[in-house]
C-alpha cells in the first residue's frame, strides 16, 4: 500500500464549480500535512498547510481527519487559473521528509 | 518566501556521461536538502536526504553509487548522475529546509534531464 494515496483524476469542472480532493495516508505517526500545487513542468508550490482544526484561505479549505487518516482540499468558485495538479504531502520521520501523493489533475473549463 | 535555485534547468546528454546538478539556497542557510525525482505523470519520489557535512541518506531502491550527493556547505548541495542512461531521464527537484526550521521546505525550479 502506498504511503500517500490520491485519486489521480483528471477532474474537469466548469468555471465557478466547487471541487474536492481527498488524500489518505497510511502512517498514523505522520506529523504534518500539506497541499501543493504543481503546474506543468514546474516545481510544486505550497498551497497551504493542513491543520487539525481545518483551515481556510480564500476559496480554498483544507481539512484533516486523523482518525480516518485523510486530508481534503475544497476549492470553491473555481477559476481557469486553478487548473493544475494538486499534490498532498505528508511529513513523517526524524528527518521530517515529505512524502507526496501521486497528484490529482484539475482542469477548469470556460 | 525563501529562494532555492537549481542549475542547469535543462540538460541533454549522451548515454554513459555524468551530469552534475546544483541546488543552492540563495537567501538562507539549509542544513537539510532533499532530492526528488519525478517521472512524467507521476509524483515526486524522494531519492535522498542530504545533511550538510555528512553523508546523504538514500531511500530504498536508490543507488548511492549512481546518484552521488555532496552537501559541502549550508547553501549548496549537488547531485551527480553518474553514467547516465535513458531510464534516468526525469525531472530532478531539490528542496531545502531552513536551518532550525520545523516544517516548510522550499523547492528549486527543477532540472529536466534527457539522456539520449
| Secondary structure category of chain A | mainly beta
Q: What characterizes the major β-sheet of chain B?
A: 7 strands, mixed
Distance between the termini of chain A: 37 Å
* SSE pattern of chain B: EEEEEEEEEEE
Question: Helicity range of the residues of chain B?
Answer: under 10%
Q: What integer is the average pLDDT of chain A?
A: 91
The oligomeric state is heterodimer
Report on the biggest sheet of chain A: 6 strands, mixed
What is the rounded Rg of chain B?
13 Å
Question: How would you portray this structure in words?
Answer:
The complex is a heterodimer of chains A (110) and B (116). Chain A is mostly beta strands. Helices cover 0% and strands 55% of the residues of chain A. Chain A has no helices and eleven strands. In chain A, the strands form two sheets. In chain A, strands 2, 4, 5, 9, 10 and 11 form a six-stranded mixed beta sheet that branches. Chain A is globular and about 45 Å long. In chain B, 0% of the residues lie in helices and 54% in strands. With 116 residues, chain B is mostly beta strands. The model of chain B has no long low-confidence stretch (mean pLDDT 91). In chain B, strands 2, 4, 5, 6, 9, 10 and 11 form a seven-stranded mixed beta sheet that branches. A four-stranded antiparallel beta sheet of chain B has the order 1-3-8-7, with no helix packed on it. Chain B contains no helices and eleven strands.
Keywords:
heterodimer, A: 110 residues, five-stranded antiparallel β-sheet, 0% helix, 55% strand, globular, B: 116 residues, mainly beta, seven-stranded mixed β-sheet, four-stranded antiparallel β-sheet, 11 strands
Compact description:
The complex is a heterodimer of chains A (110) and B (116). Chain A has 110 residues and is mostly beta strands.
Secondary structure blueprint with pairings:
The complex is a heterodimer of chains A (110) and B (116).
Chain A: E1 4-6, E2 11-14, E3 19-25, E4 32-38, E5 45-50, E6 55-57, E7 60-65, E8 70-75, E9 84-92, E10 97-100, E11 104-109
Parallel strand pairs in A: 2-11
Antiparallel strand pairs in A: 1-3, 3-8, 4-5, 4-9, 6-7, 7-8, 9-10, 9-11
Chain B: E1 4-7, E2 10-13, E3 19-25, E4 30-38, E5 45-51, E6 57-58, E7 67-73, E8 76-81, E9 90-98, E10 105-107, E11 111-115
Parallel strand pairs in B: 2-11
Antiparallel strand pairs in B: 1-3, 3-8, 4-5, 4-9, 5-6, 7-8, 9-10, 9-11
Amino acid at each position: 500500500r502506498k504511503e500517500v494515496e490520491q485519486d489521480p483524476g483528471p477532474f474537469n469542472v466548469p468555471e465557478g464549480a466547487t471541487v474536492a480532493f481527498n488524500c489518505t495516508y497510511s502512517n498514523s505517526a505522520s506529523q504534518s500535512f500539506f497541499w501543493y500545487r504543481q503546474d506543468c513542468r514546474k516545481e510544486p508550490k505550497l498551497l497551504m498547510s493542513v491543520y487539525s482544526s481545518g483551515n481556510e484561505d480564500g476559496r480554498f479549505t483544507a481539512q484533516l481527519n486523523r482518525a480516518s487518516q485523510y486530508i481534503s482540499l475544497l476549492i470553491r468558485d473555481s477559476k481557469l487559473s486553478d487548473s493544475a495538479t494538486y499534490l498532498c504531502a505528508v511529513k513523517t520521520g526524524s528527518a521530517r521528509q515529505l512524502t507526496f501523493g501521486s497528484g490529482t489533475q484539475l482542469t477548469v473549463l470556460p | 518566501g525563501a529562494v532555492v535555485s537549481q542549475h542547469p534547468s535543462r540538460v541533454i546528454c549522451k548515454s554513459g556521461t555524468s551530469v552534475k546538478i546544483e541546488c543552492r539556497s540563495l537567501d538562507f542557510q539549509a542544513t537539510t536538502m532533499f532530492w526528488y525525482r519525478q517521472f512524467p505523470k507521476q509524483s515526486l519520489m524522494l531519492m535522498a536526504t542530504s545533511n550538510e557535512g555528512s553523508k546523504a541518506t538514500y531511500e530504498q531502491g536508490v543507488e548511492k553509487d549512481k546518484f552521488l550527493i555532496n552537501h559541502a556547505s549550508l547553501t549548496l548541495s549537488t547531485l551527480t548522475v553518474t553514467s547516465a542512461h535513458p531510464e534516468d531521464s526525469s525531472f530532478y527537484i531539490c528542496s531545502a529546509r531552513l536551518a532550525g526550521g520545523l516544517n516548510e521546505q522550499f523547492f528549486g525550479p527543477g532540472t529536466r534531464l534527457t539522456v539520449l
